[in-house]
Design brief:
This protein has 273 residues and is an alpha+beta fold. It contains 6 helices and 16 strands.
Length: 273
């Protein structure tokens, strides 16, 4: 066999596709109720792309249950052992939590100033020891739906703008917004970090005129508050009532629940995993 064919060709300035055994792969989850193709299993782990997984299989760098895989299209089932370039690739214990965030709580895993964080509302052993972290963030005084997980790939896609994940807020403003002000929100306003607009605005039927249901798909820092300020008002209360289709129904402020398997599957579909 010509060894030159087995070399991993890379473009100048890029790292080889061979995984670095010293680097921890992305934590991953995969449904093995039905067998899945080996290249997909490897790619889901975050070690490399599916195409590079095919290349490593061809080069004899992948073992399935102790045997070098020499054919394409081999499938992995629950309980199988996969080793890539000497490194075991296994699904990890994934956690998916929906928290109904209260006010005066920061969205971080820890805080140097000792302020209360969302992690303080979860069990430190059960979740922090498993690497759970918030998906995106809500500012200190914004309440509502916050997803936390240790599924790095899912979190990355949920927060990536290309997937346009919907966020819905109940907004209480200082003044009753005019139709013209609402039209500005829909048309788009210019913030210091670029143009921003809302996808939908509905006046809440509460008799005050101060509350709005507002939908966006971006996730910039304090975006809703800044947009309301730009049109000449101020946010008094801000509650995220829906995130990626998930709501806090039945979950009191400061409390949490685990996502169901069906909910996790739906999230995966939304981000094409």
């Amino acid at each position: 066999m010509d060894r030159r064919r087995g070399r991993n060709k890379t473009r100048k300035g890029t790292a080889p596709s061979q995984p670095d055994s010293s680097r921890r792969p992305f934590e991953f989850t995969i449904d093995l109720t039905e067998p899945v193709r080996l290249n997909r299993y490897i790619a889901r782990s975050g070690v490399c792309s599916r195409r590079d997984a095919d290349d490593m299989i061809k080069r004899g760098l992948v073992k399935l249950n102790g045997e070098v895989v020499s054919e394409m299209g081999v499938k992995v089932k629950d309980g199988d052992e996969v080793v890539v370039n000497g490194k075991h690739i296994v699904p990890t214990d994934k956690q998916y939590v929906l928290l109904n965030k209260p006010t005066d709580t920061i969205t971080t895993t820890s805080d140097e100033k000792g302020r209360k964080s969302v992690m303080d509302l979860l069990g430190p052993y059960e979740f922090q020891s498993k690497g759970v972290f918030p998906v995106g963030r809500l500012d200190r005084h914004t309440t509502g739906v916050l997803l936390l997980t240790n599924d790095g790939m899912l979190a990355h896609r949920l927060t990536h703008p290309s997937y346009e994940i919907n966020k819905e807020y109940l907004v209480q403003t200082r003044d009753v917004l005019s139709d013209h002000q609402i039209e500005k929100l829909l048309a788009g306003v210019e913030l210091e970090d670029g143009a921003a607009k809302v996808d939908k605005v509905v006046r809440a039927d509460d008799g005050t005129g101060l509350n709005l249901i507002l939908s966006i798909h971006e996730g910039r820092n304090r975006q809703v508050r800044r947009m309301i300020e730009i049109i000449g008002s101020e946010v008094i209360k801000l509650d995220r009532v829906r995130y990626a289709g998930l709501t806090a129904k039945g979950v009191r402020k400061g409390k949490w629940r685990r996502l169901s398997r069906a909910e996790v599957t739906t999230l995966y579909r939304k981000v094409k995993l």
